[in-house]
Amino acid sequence: MSSPQFDPSTYSTQLDEKKQRLIELLAPFDAPAPQVFESPREHYRLRAEFRLWREGEDRHYAMFAAGDKHQPIFIEEFPIASALINDLMPRLKAAWQSNKVLGLKLFQVEFLTTLSGEALITLCYHRPLDEAWQVEAEKLAAELNVSIVGRSKGKRIVIGRDYVQERLEVAGRTFSYRQPEGAFTQPNGQVNQKMLSWAYDVLGERDDDLLELYCGNGNFTLPLSTRVRKVLATEISKSSVNAALANLDDNGIDTITLVRLSAEELTEALNEVRPFRRLADVDLKSYDFGTVFVDPPRAGMDPDTCELTRRFDRILYISCNPETLAANIAQLHDTHKITRCALFDQFPYTHHMESGVLLERR
């Protein structure tokens, strides 16, 4: 079977359809026309995950159509993925085909790459990983110039590092990011860089403080921190928190306080519903928050967190789901209006889109 079809000649049409969809969703709130940030037509996706499917004596990279786990689509090349992923795919396939230790009961492969040229490959097995596997994996990592993570039930072996180091430029400054294996990272690096620059511009130079919810590995936190006095950022994922703390150190930024709390827990803390031990060394009353920045999951903000954001004069909101974005804005529309709007085409050739708005108090 052939790989999923994509046609770069249709790109402009599908992007315009997304723009119109966003305009329609935000029309009830008198939103200004969105700035539109395009994606490269190909080689834009920095991560990819494939199942392996056996046919005869060979195993192939495979993907499946939505809702169909029985009819594989064999992948020989993957033009939406980074050029580095496409370079590594046949070389890795040759390795598992020629080396029984590497190929035995290998069922899934994941690639994580960066704009800066680093790569990490995760190999998943239906068998225990032993010393013989580690010896061969170390040879393969050296040959491919990558890090490798081997996974089997209850075991994880790291050859090299369990993260890649990305470098992104915002307003003339380069920020360094550790992106851990298995943790969320923005898939489209070039569009991510455009998102960071847009948010940096929209936030503006401030003489007050920033509250950030759902900060992840600090993707937005690092550049936005240079626009304000100080930042209080929260994230619930332990791996993301650890990566964010490392990123603060790597970039020499000391104006950010990071707390492992959910948005719901922070709401309780700010409302003084109950104390949190993880906030014992944080003086919440010392902050003068002028802006809250949110980048929630696809479900958007829950009603209580949405109400929390209402207390701030400015709400900078990045969304991966325009429907839940519109629902949250509907809750806030009586006190805040949209003054800036943007569409970021993180996911070309799909209906998914990333968008951003600045809401300011009326």
Describe the structure.
The model has no long low-confidence stretch (mean pLDDT 94). The protein has helices at 11-26, 83-98, 100-103, 131-144, 189-203, 221-225, 238-251, 263-270, 303-310, 322-332; strands at residues 35-37, 47-55, 58-64, 72-74, 106-113, 119-125, 147-152, 155-159, 163-170, 173-180, 209-213, 231-234, 256-259, 289-294, 314-319, 336-344, 354-361. With 362 residues, it is α/β, with parallel strands linked by helices. The strands form three sheets. Strands 1-16-17-15-14-11-12-13 form an eight-stranded mixed beta sheet, sandwiched between helices.
Concise account of the structure shown:
With 362 residues, the chain is α/β, with parallel strands linked by helices. Helices cover 31% and strands 29% of the residues.
